[in-house]
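Escalated from tier 1: coproporphyrinogen III holo job.
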Amino acid sequence: MNDLFLKACHRQPVERTPVWFMRQAGRYMAEYQAIRRKHSILDVCKTPALAAEVTLQPIQRFKLDAAIIFADILLPLQAMGLNLEFVEGKGPVIDNPIRGEMGIVELRAVDGEAFGYAGEAIRQALEALDNRVPLIGFAGAPFTLASYAIEGGSSRDYARTKQLMFSQPTVWHQLLSKLSAVVIEYLRVQSRAGAQAIQLFDSWVGCLSPADYEEYVLPHVQSIISALRVEGIPIIYFGTGTTGLLPLMRKAGSDVMGVDWRVRLDDGWNLVGHDVAIQGNLDPMVLFSSEKEIERRVRGIMQQAAGRPGHIFNLGHGILPTTPLHSVEFAIDCVRRFSQDESAAI
Ligand code: CP3
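Tier 2 regenerated the structure:
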């Protein structure tokens, strides 16, 4: 198997920097759109054969070094009793959001049995991958999940989420503990089905101050990561807008820190320390510019990584729906061209 990605997670030297893209399976691909014309996003996620097929689509088309299982971070919220829907042009909508202590008490504390489809999707994707590249499992981190559960969908200012956090801290911690327990179950199912790494998406945690992150979020992420340590697979912890939080996020204990483009890769790496691997961090919007510009930006990131072991090339956030395919292919080629042979340097 191509194990560049796993080696980089462990900060072992590699002959070439591994590359994969968050949301690499999705609407920018015609073959994904073809499946979505016939099936809803939730159907694709919950039908293992479809989830496995979509997982493989970007692997068949591009020279990627890892696959990520096709699923969504919001699936565990649905299992816990929230009514999840994806509305065209609006994104996720939950029509019975949590508005106080009662809502939290009523949330179901489901175990791994609720995620049988996720394990089966991983098994089928692994079979189809046939050891070409490793398969990444994933889940939402508790703050980001809580924000959807409380706001009832995407949000700009996280007003209700912060209101609960600041005004009822005990209730907040109850909610995050409950979410964390389900996230652990969900990730355990994926790991036991054979996922070779896992990523925790804390996409919106960057809206918090360092002090609030440390008090209201960090202990919960620590508990998830320490519970999953026994699985023996690398754990990636990713958020956006996290420049001011990185040293604290590092304390969550992941093997790899994911960073977006709002921080230089070398500055981000300095902030978390070189005893952890780093993943990132091309602005996904760069893929809408010229080849010359894409090349310049990829080279910049590779120069900042400076051939140190432990860099996984990725975007700073998910690939956008109208991204040109040739730009994706071109960016991957640039990473390959600008890769430094670390094994030769040692
Ligand atoms: O990376 C991959 O290829 C795996 C698939 C994946 C999806 N969602 C499928 C999906 C992953 C890793 C996710 C994670 C996810 N989901 C996150 C964290 C990553 C991030 O972007 O911050 C978040 C916040 C969600 C919640 C979510 N799901 C939103 C906000 C939306 C609507 C977004 C949009 O662009 O319309 C979704 C739906 C969703 N999940 C899509 C995909 C490919 C778009 C769905 C479609 O209509 O086909």
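The radius of gyration is 19 Å.
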